C-alpha cells in the first residue's frame, strides 16, 4: 500500500506490470525477455516515469516544512 501511486504509474505503461500469480509473472517475464522491442519500450517507459517523478520527495519535504514553520 505504501507504493500504490508508483505501482499505478508503472502499470499504465510498459514500465511495470502487476501480476496476480506466478503464471502471469512467468508470461510477462517471457515476453519481456523474448521480445526485443517490448523490452526496449519497457526500458524507455521506466526512464520516463522516473524522470517525471524526480523532485517529488523534495516537494513533499517542502510542504511539510511549510506546515511546521521551518
Fold and architecture overview:
- This protein has 70 residues and is mainly alpha-helical.
- Helices cover 74% and strands 0% of the residues.
- It contains four helices and no strands.
- The longest helix has 18 residues.
- The mean pLDDT is 87.
The number of helical elements comes to 4
Low-confidence stretches: none
- The gyration radius over C-alpha positions equals 16 Å
Number of strands: 0
Structural class label: mainly alpha
Strand proportion, as a percent range, falls in under 5%
Note the overall shape: elongated
**SSE order, as H and E?**
HHHH
Main beta-sheet strand count, sense and barrel state: none
- Helix amount, in percent? over 70%
Arithmetic mean of pLDDT: 87
* N- and C-termini, Cα separation: 29 Å
In short:
By secondary structure, the chain is an all-alpha fold. The chain is built from 4 helices and no strands.
Which terms summarize this structure?
70 residues; mainly alpha; 74% helix; elongated
Task: Please give the structural blueprint.
Elements: H1 4-11, H2 22-34, H3 36-53, H4 56-68
Amino acid at each position: 500500500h505504501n507504493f500504490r501511486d508508483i505501482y499505478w504509474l508503472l502499470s499504465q505503461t510498459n514500465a511495470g506490470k502487476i501480476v496476480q500469480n506466478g503464471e502471469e509473472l512467468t508470461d510477462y517475464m517471457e515476453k519481456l525477455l523474448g521480445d526485443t522491442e517490448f523490452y526496449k519500450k519497457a526500458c524507455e517507459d521506466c526512464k520516463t516515469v522516473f524522470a517525471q517523478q524526480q523532485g517529488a520527495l523534495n516537494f513533499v519535504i517542502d510542504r511539510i516544512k511549510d506546515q511546521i514553520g521551518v
